[in-house]
Amino acid sequence: MALYGAAAAVLSGLERGEGGLSGLVYGSRFPHTRQLYALVAETLRYSPVLEALLDGAALLRAERRLPLPLAKVRGGAGRGGGGSAAGPRGADCCPQVLVYDLLFGKGLKCGGRWKALVRRHRARLEAELARLKVRRGVSRNEELLAPGPGAGPGGERGGGRALPAAAGPGLTPPSLCFPAPCVPRYVRVNTLKTRVDDVVDFFKRQGYSFLGRAGSMEELRTLSGKKFLLDLHLPELLVFPPQTDFHDNRLYTSGHIILQDKASCLPAFLLSPVASSHVIDACAAPGNKTSHLAAILKNKGQIFAFDLDAKRLATMNTMLTRAGVTSFKLAQQDFLTVDPHDPKYSKVTYILLDPSCSGSGMVNRLPVEEAAPSAERLQALAGFQRRVLSHALSFPAVQRLAYSTCSVHREENEDVVQAVLQEQGSAFRLVNVFPSWPCRGLPTFPGAECCLRASPEATLTQGFFVAVLERCRDQAAVPSSLPASAEESLQQGEEMEPGAAPPKKRRRKKQRVK
């Protein structure tokens, strides 16, 4: 029952706006955070379908002992019209979680009295699921998630109906909803353990159809069924339809593939540290970017990774070990307290900085519209981000830095970069990375177009921002607000244009996927 109780607590915290999915999961006392995260994320993804099943099967009328589902708590639709007193706050289960695991998950493995109560109505729920598929003209469970023709926001097929929640004055109430447009499932091949060709062959043997390298964003947008593509921008990224789930696939559980949004892959890819370099990952947990850095470094050199939360670091250590990462040192430390002049960091030439932010761009991983941050909150975040970026640039040997956020707000992105560049004078400049990337920085200062933005609508990713800063070779000659030339970027050998073939590499023996 501990798993379902923990999931109910996380969902309740999300609805009350107490934090984001990752923070609430890692802040819980449940020992198996990956299992909890997957259950909550999938329950959220299926939430419109689950609500339809609960309503259609009249389960709550038949079993009054069940706590109210989150969808009903604050909408004034309580059993007695009373509202949230009987809701999930303090309850040890959530009907949506139980019904998800019964019908779409691994089956109810625990749950005590709630397990017996829900399983008593299994036939009723399965019959309602069958009727729902007939009404929507689909045959597979995953197809219930896809918007149907003519289904608008809040329509039965769209799954976009917001579930009401309380909010403070002037704040948008958080709501559970299915994001639109659908963002594909991105799979990064972990080149520390395998090769892209081997992973492609593995999925083909599992019945997937490989369509080759994508030629346009439209090909990614229309991907469906058991088909997949090689991404048109990143050479080791495979793209599957949005509802594809690989959490139980043995390539994932063995660390051969990493489930990572495309935008989240950009910072390490654009930083592109040379093998044998010393690199800092300043705000590292949960570790996907760290493992990406290690793959780019080919496990040569050294990665120093920092995070304040001991539990997140423990989880990260497990994840990195599973991914075959060996060249890393974890430290439970606030990066702002790290001494740039400590001899151990004297060879650090690359820094990846992905600091805490509002998380306002995370529309796919977490289908929850959280309360819009206030102006005061944004200014506080931006102040922290400016301090940590300035601190990172104070490491004497650093030559290149990637600054990224999963925020859509100018205050956390362009404004931070501009302020720190002005503070640095002529010491650092922006690098014009990926000139062909479709979304650029907001034109708030000269050179801001060198920054990258990402969004579900334009790039089929989470909302994201990346800026790459480089130490000026001739500090007196190059003002900080100007981008580095494209020729200098290419001389570094770090960037790869969209659609370009990856450089040939000497083939190394790797564990083949069978």
From TrEMBL:
Cited SUPFAM superfamilies: S-adenosyl-L-methionine-dependent methyltransferases (SSF53335)
Active site: 406
Domain SAM-dependent MTase RsmB/NOP-type as annotated: residue spans: 175-472
Cellular localization per UniProt: Nucleus, Nucleolus
Ranges annotated as biased composition (Basic residues): 503-514
Region (Disordered): 143-162, 483-514
Compositional bias annotation for Gly residues: 149-161
MF annotations from Gene Ontology: RNA binding; rRNA (cytosine-C5-)-methyltransferase activity
Annotated GO CC locations: nucleolus
GO biological process: rRNA base methylation
Protein keywords: Acetylation, Coiled coil, Methyltransferase, Nucleus, Phosphoprotein, RNA-binding, rRNA processing, S-adenosyl-L-methionine, Transferase
Annotated binding of S-adenosyl-L-methionine, by residue: 283-289, 307, 334, 354
Primary location: nucleus
Keyword Transferase: yes
Taxonomy, superkingdom: Eukaryota
Pfam families reported for this sequence: Methyltr_RsmB-F (PF01189), NSUN5_fdxn-like (PF21148), NSUN5_N (PF21153)
Residue ranges the record marks as coiled coil: 115-142
PANTHER family found in the cross-reference section: 28S RRNA (CYTOSINE-C(5))-METHYLTRANSFERASE, NOP2 YEAST -RELATED NOL1/NOP2/FMU SUN DOMAIN-CONTAINING
Protein family membership: Belongs to the class I-like SAM-binding methyltransferase superfamily. RsmB/NOP family.
Name this polypeptide is given: 28S rRNA (cytosine-C(5))-methyltransferase
Protein species of origin: Asarcornis scutulata
